[in-house]
Amino acid sequence: MAKVIVDPITRIEGHLGVTLETKDITTKTGTWTLVDKAYCHTNLFRGFEIILKGRDPRDAYFITPRICGVCHAVHGEASMQALDYAYGVTPPPAAVLIRNIMFAAFYCYDHMIHTYLLVGPELGILAKYPPMVPPVLGKEGIASIGLGSSYAACVEMQRIANEVVALWGGKAPFPVCEYPGGVTVKPTLDRIAGTLTRMNQVWHFATKTMYKDLMALKEQNAHIGEVVSTLLDINFRGLQDLGPAYKYKLSYGLFPDHENYDDWVKAQDGEPSRRKSAVIHAGAWDGDFKDFELGKIKEYVKYSKYDDSCTGLHPKNGKTIPKKDKPGAYAWAKAPRYDDKPYEVGPFARMVNTFGLNWTFEVTNPITGDSLKFEWQVLNPEGSVIDRVAARVAQTILFSTKAMEWAVELKQYLNDKIVDDRTNNFTYVPDNAEGFGLVEAPRGALLHYTNIKNKKIANYQCVVPSTWNLGPRDDMGQPGPVEKALENTWLPKLSVPEVANALYEGWGDTLASALVKLNPLFAKLNMEGEYNTTLPLAIVRSFDPCIACGVHIIMKKR
Amino acid sequence: MKLTRRNFLKLVGALGASTFISTYKFELQEVFAQAGDYWHICWLNGAECAGCTISFAQAVEPDLISILTEITVGTSGLPIALPDYAEVIHPASGSLAEELKEEVWKKAAMKILVVEGAVQNEGYCTVGVDENGNPKDFRDHVLDAAKVADAIVAVGQCATFGGIPSGSPNPTGAMGVREFLKKQGINKTVINLPCCPAHPDHIVITLAAVMIGAIPELDKYGRPKVFFGKNMHDELCPYRPYYDRGIFKTTPGGEGCRFKMGCKGPVTWTDCALRKWNNHVSFCNETNICLGCAEPGWPDKFSPFYKEVTELPKLLGMSAKSLGEGLVVASAGITAVHLAKRALTKGKKEKEE
């Protein structure tokens, strides 16, 4: 057994390393190294909940988005929904629409940037698909081998999507326009027009470029499976056999119905719910649709750097006593579990909890009348690199359409109120109250909990997507979803160009000449010693890790 | 107009990033043709959220792709600047990422260090491993890189002044890069580009300026005066006329000057209202209030955010003086703030001219 450490893992948010323990298998064609066990270690701690304590409850909306600058808008949204609940106020329809438009645009930016800038490059290499391989060499790189056309277009499109966030929120990252019970920005025709123009561009990118790129990956998939199967003499179907986690998938739901907000709130009450009136449903998929229940969440710390007395608690009662040198502990993140099982969260979990295993829907662009029928039959129900990418593409298509539909709908609410009557007096803060905010971040289920005492934050907690996915083993010994997904992954003793050549004759040579022109060291891309870590990296990135979110410590009593 | 260090500030103020770069494309190219190499950038991330990297990706005119493709070093086809190390976007991971930093960046002729995120006490942020296989503290990464860098640019509120991680009770001892280096005995200029996140225009223009040897003039907090020399409330805010007429926004859905909702414009020195954000579509005051994120002491001296600036000092138990230049006579009331600011600004302008 060898130990392979990859640290830092780049092209994710934050500081993450993984340790891979290897095992060898021998087949007819030779001896091959696979990942036996994987351990994720998260390497940054800032202490947000401690900083929040004692502040004006509304400050959480400005401070928590800074937990993560990639998924900036959703931390604000989660904190605001916790405040809505604690205040006992309901955002009026116009406010729900404005929030939805802003988040739909935000989601499009986030899924695009992830698909192309973060996880895309390795997929472009594996599928011999130049539009997704980044133009490392500037102009000449793009011109000489046609690298990165989709990659470059994505840089522009994510920017346009963020302009919509800024139209409503003031700026992106970190929009500022939400308020308990509503928003502070008025619906105006110029904002609506600005939204429609821009989302129309995003829609065309999503339905043309992203969809086409996804289909191109899918087309090469069987070939990748065949080559690897033949080479290793194993049964490997393709990218769907890369990174399966568990069958358990958790979603809190996304985009409440502006005319049925009560259905949305039920989940925050703790009632079993699927939030079926929302665009994306809540649920605890285990092979079939199951209601989500807030009470079933617990956090475990046996392998986290906290005192063992903190283990097995619901976030509301959670406590955190740091123990930096606890024997056996290897992560700052806790291990959240739902019904004591490790649930994967994120785009794939959202899709299965809403559409099951067959994602078929038709969208029509309300501006141009163009339409697209999206179809994706899940290739691996336990999740995989390609299914996760497909989920992001599906959601970019779906949400860019919705953003336009909501913008059109908002025209009917131009003169309506944008904040609950109770909070129209902006000096009002409840004396004592508490509330959960439950939303989906692009990376998955996000929970904020605020407890207000004497008009100040007495306790604030977040359970974020990346602890669900990247958290360590729990007290029962179950690896976290990413740790599980990395098991049995092939670690070729071949360089990236050699792997590319094995897949497509000459493709590796083309890549190699491009790579080393910038610097000869690039010949060692993704190599840790003799092992090529391209596949584990693609798996980790397919979960879109956000480590700043994952490690933020929860401290009830200091 | 020929570009010199002297007139750089004025030109940037007048032109903005896009015109600046296109106008001085040939000067830029000349510099690089002579050098025969590109500027090597090392972008370190400490106690951060990647928001500044994402903000940098929102740059327009030129956007990131044109920055990398339209101006090249001589006939090499290489861009004028490339990150040898940048965690959030770089192709390389793991040991290669660290090797590129050590072997390429540190040995390059022209190198810029960009830091995103605060520096904390030991043990709270590690990146990669050292030669003995132990986790390497972010503090050591910053120290090693700062020692050899030709220019150091701190981007965002965290890297400049400590930002949210340094918020009371500052559980991890977070501080800005300038303060950290000073404490470590390294006296190098750190160009501070605050705001949360840093503005992409500020980053692009500052990096371009550094590359042609025109270090912008800095204020006492290390911020380029060209971006942070004007008081937002007094000189730039489009809602200022409301203030002068006594019309205030006092409900989330209302209209008027944002002062009474807690807008921090009167004590904030930044060009947000002029430059705006995200391709110039908006800025915080258009949809809510200014939070004051360009200033040292943020967030504590500016929170609760929904409090009038005049009420903050006594609420926080701080002297008015510590809140920043704008609030010297805050207790005397709104008009006094206004007048004092005008006086301050006037003095400032005169000094500059």
Task: Give a description of the structure.
The complex is a heterodimer of chains A (558) and B (353). Chain A is of the alpha+beta class and 558 residues long. Chain A has one domain (45-488): Cytochrome-c3 Hydrogenase, chain B. Chain A contains 17 helices and 17 strands. In chain A, strand 2 (16-27) and strand 3 (30-42) form a beta hairpin. In chain A, helix 7 runs antiparallel to helix 8 and helix 8 (189-232) runs antiparallel to helix 11 (385-410). Chain A is globular and about 70 Å long. Chain B is of the alpha/beta class and 353 residues long. Chain B has two domains: 5-227, NADH:ubiquinone oxidoreductase-like, 20kDa subunit (Rossmann fold); 229-352, Cytochrome-c3 hydrogenase, C-terminal domain (Cytochrome-c3 Hydrogenase, Chain A, domain 2), CATH 4.10.480. In chain B, strands 2-1-3-6-7 form a five-stranded parallel β-sheet, with helices on both faces. In chain B, strands 4-5 form a two-stranded antiparallel ribbon. In chain B, a hairpin with a 5-residue loop joins strand 4 (126-129) and strand 5. In chain B, helix 1 (5-23) packs across helix 9 (200-211). The radius of gyration of chain B is 21 Å and the shape is globular. Mean pLDDT of chain B is 81; it is low at 314-337 and 339-353. Chains A and B meet through helix 1, helix 2, helix 6, helix 7 and strand 5 of A and helix 3, helix 4, helix 5, strand 4 and helix 14 of B.
Throw out a few tags for this protein.
heterodimer, A: 558 residues, alpha+beta, Cytochrome-c3 Hydrogenase, chain B, 17 helices, globular, B: 353 residues, alpha/beta, Rossmann fold, Cytochrome-c3 Hydrogenase, Chain A, domain 2, 2 domains, 5-stranded parallel beta sheet, 10% strand, disordered C terminus
